[in-house]
Automatic annotation (TrEMBL):
Domain of life: Bacteria
Lineage: Bacteria, Bacillati, Actinomycetota, Actinomycetes, Kitasatosporales
Active site: 167, 354
UniProt KW Hydrolase keyword: yes
Protein name from the UniProt record: Beta-glucosidase
Keyword Hydrolase: yes
Protein species of origin: Kitasatospora cineracea
Length: 446
């Protein structure tokens, strides 16, 4: 097994969070209403009726959280801006108080020697825009570009690189196709325009960011897709699933075209959403990095439901997280090799922007240490094989609001008592801190 410390000189270590999952303070300082505020009020939508109204109270406790990051010795903090703090209704002038908060956070990070890596959209669309159609409406992409410009104008002198979108695949499928995340629509394949309009938003925002001399990344949830057997039917289903989960949100960026979705009865215009010039904008040269969020592979078999060209099959014989997700570290290595083989010179440098697991251990979270160690071994193998991976951000710094699961799943290096808001570092926090220190010492020595 490759030594997990054997990573390239200059490799950047980080953690990730998201605004709605940690900030709280949903009614303060002019913040507008988001689709998650609305969704959490729907009976039965979120376990235990939980919401992000308070979450980790990061809005007030951010200095304490930055101190925890400083102690970890991080290079990078990946977080998201709440669109509704910057533009309460998703249009119009900026809300100064919202930008003031992010300016305080950015300055605090820089004082701690940590580079901010903000994500502009992590699923918390302004409710006002959802009322006009949300990501099914093309105009939302243009509103997003205006929001990006407002954020960059305030913070771009201190924040050199920006992630436009987080996991547009998950947001489209869970939010618009299946209805298990906000905004809770159940459109199935009629949700595909939400894919294109998110990518169009990326292209429009990227132009604004590049015009200000800033680097641009995008982060997506990607998975190696494996057939349940060598049967032709299973292999065909695997290709169909791979096209939807992986290629739909990567081919347009790097190849300037959508994958073949004919297995779904869908043409290249994605139900009329694609217009002339859109793909040129989406694939404009200059993507400075690809964020890869990896949690597990996917095993696919021939369809059992006539409405879909695939069926998901269980992955047997591996450990599982508290969430029930299979733990397959070599899947990260497999995924990175697949990306290089598929996109070759078009593949930009990679940052692993999310990777982590939920456990039911309070403080002695040995399963999380084992999970992270295995995935970092796989990552070191990939870099040893010449794949350009620049950094790694584990999910997550803090236990937080885990979307539809409420507060029942804990992904944090730091335990949060949600009643008292007390933060207590777990065993994995100390392990990650020591790993970073050892990696840094090794880089200096070499």
């Amino acid at each position: 097994m490759t030594d997990r410390h054997d990573l390239p000189a200059g490799f950047r270590w980080g953690v990730s969070t998201a605004a709605y999952q940690i900030e709280g303070a949903v009614d303060e300082d002019g913040r507008g209403r988001s689709i998650w505020d609305t969704f959490c009020e729907r009976p039965g939508a979120v376990k235990n009726g939980d919401s992000g109204r308070v979450a980790c109270d990061h809005y007030h406790r951010w200095p304490e959280d930055v101190a925890l990051m400083r102690e970890l010795g991080l290079d990078t903090y990946r977080f998201s801006l709440a669109w509704t703090r910057v533009q309460p209704t998703g249009r119009g002038p900026a809300n100064p108080a919202g930008l003031d908060f992010y300016e305080r956070l950015v300055d605090g990070l820089l004082e701690a020697g940590i580079t901010p890596l903000p994500t502009l959209f992590h699923w918390d669309l302004p409710q006002a825009l959802e009322g006009e159609g949300g990501w099914l409406h093309r105009d939302t992409a243009h509103r997003f570009a205006e929001y990006a410009a407002l954020a960059a104008d305030r913070l771009g002198d201190r924040v050199p690189a920006w992630i436009t979108l987080n996991e547009p695949f998950v947001h489209m499928v869970y939010g618009y196709a299946l209805g298990i995340h906000a905004p809770g629509r159940t459109l199935m394949l009629d949700a595909l325009p939400a894919a294109h309009h998110q990518l169009l938003a990326h292209g429009l925002a990227a132009a604004e960011l590049r015009g200000r001399g800033l680097d641009v990344l995008i982060a997506n949830n990607l998975t190696p897709v494996r057939p349940a057997s060598d049967a032709p039917e299973d292999r065909a289903a695997t290709e169909a699933y791979d096209a939807l989960h992986n290629r739909l949100f990567t081919d347009p960026l790097l190849l300037g075209r959508y994958p073949d979705l004919s297995a779904y009865g869908v043409g290249p215009d994605l139900h009329g959403a694609v217009r002339d010039g859109d793909l040129d904008l989406i694939s404009a040269p200059g993507l400075d990095g690809l964020g890869v969020n990896y949690y597990n592979p996917t095993r696919i078999a021939a369809p059992t439901d006539p409405g879909l060209p695939f069926a998901e099959a269980p992955i047997e014989g591996v450990p599982r997280t508290h969430f029930g997700w299979p733990v397959v570290p070599e899947g990260l290595y497999e995924l990175l090799l697949t990306l290089r083989g598929r996109y070759s010179d078009a593949l930009p440098p990679i940052t692993v922007t999310e990777n982590g697991c939920s456990t039911d251990a309070a403080l002695d979270d040995t399963p999380r240490i084992d999970y992270l160690a295995g995935h970092l071994d796989a990552l070191a193998r990939a870099t040893a094989d010449g794949i350009d991976v620049r950094g790694y951000c584990t999910w997550s710094l803090l236990d937080n609001f885990e979307w539809g699961e409420g507060y029942g799943e804990r992904f944090g290096l730091v335990h949060v008592d949600f009643a008292s808001q007390q933060r207590t570092p777990k065993a994995s926090y100390a392990w990650y801190r020591d790993l970073i220190a050892a990696q840094r010492a090794k880089s200096v020595a070499s």
